[in-house]
Design a protein that fits this description.
Mean pLDDT: 94
Helix content: 25-40%
Low-confidence stretches: none
CATH architecture of the largest domain: 3-Layer(aba) Sandwich
Distance between the termini: 35 Å
CATH class of the largest domain: Alpha Beta
Shape: elongated
Number of domains: 2
CATH topology of the largest domain: Alpha/beta knot
Order of helices and strands: EHHEEEHEHEHEHHEEHHH
Bound molecules: 6-chloroguanine
Number of helices: 10
Radius of gyration: 22 Å
Structural class: alpha/beta
């Protein structure tokens, strides 16, 4: 999979993309991630990427020219059209289902915005999908792009050491994960649940499932109703 990140702050993204699971996936060739600066595609001596909004209003708007030129630069020679995504607070809200869908893409182009937003013709002209990572305002799309990349890369086959671990994650079955314990068995008077030490595989699995349902019911009842309406399965 290839991912192009278009940003005014490549230096803010770089260390994140070199770390941990993503860094390992990049180094092993599983994903290719490139950072491109809009500033390298400006047309004037001031290297402007933004301007005041027509009709007045607060703040500055990302201009079409640098965005289109940067996109054309990263997509030249591509056989199939990439999936274009604008990171904006007005987009479709990211969830695991959307992550799974985007993880199937061969080539993603992520456009990070700053200032008050993108000129509307960027979205229209690039036929870009808009994605938000939640109902709060960030000062730029970079951190959202990093969230999206993290969620997508860990689903690529081979990105996690243990192939099973992505499947067990919270949300992958529409439920939160069960509680986890490691050594020691007793810590400051708090003991690991006996069943986990029992070696009884079926009972352990039943406990995990029960805990997972209980946790989801307590913390995220909305996930249980989503599941029921989707699959007809009873929680
Ligand atoms: Cl993708 N961008 C910005 N600027 N704010 C956000 C967001 C994105 N998602 C949630 N808030």
């Amino acid at each position: 999979m290839r991912v192009d990140v278009l940003t005014l702050f490549p230096e803010a993204c770089q260390p994140f993309l070199e770390s941990s699971i993503i860094g390992r996936a990049v180094r092993s060739g599983l994903v290719e991630i490139s950072l491109t600066n809009y500033r390298d595609f400006t047309h004037d001596v001031h290297r402007s990427v933004d301007d005041r909004p027509f009709g007045g209003g607060q703040g500055m708007v990302m201009m079409c020219g640098p965005a289109f030129d940067a996109v054309e630069h990263v997509t030249q020679g591509c056989e199939t059209p990439p999936t274009m995504i604008l990171l904006t607070p007005q987009g479709e809200r990211l969830n695991q289902r959307l992550v799974e869908e985007l993880a199937e893409s061969r080539h993603l182009v992520l456009l990070c915005g700053h200032y008050e937003g993108f000129d509307e013709r960027i979205r229209i002209g690039l036929k870009a999908r808009e994605v938000s990572i939640g109902d709060y305002v960030l000062s730029g799309g970079e951190s959202a792009a990093m969230v999206l990349i993290d969620a997508i890369v860990r689903l690529q086959p081979g990105a996690l050491g243990d192939e099973k671990s992505a499947a067990d994650d919270s949300f992958s079955h529409g439920l939160l994960e069960h509680p986890q314990y490691t050594r020691p068995r007793s810590f400051r008077g708090m003991d690991v649940p006996e069943v986990l030490l029992s070696g009884h595989h079926a009972q352990i699995e039943a406990w995990k499932r029960e805990q997972s349902l209980k946790r989801t019911a307590e913390r995220r009842p909305d996930l249980l109703s989503d599941r029921e309406s989707e699959s007809g399965e009873q929680a």
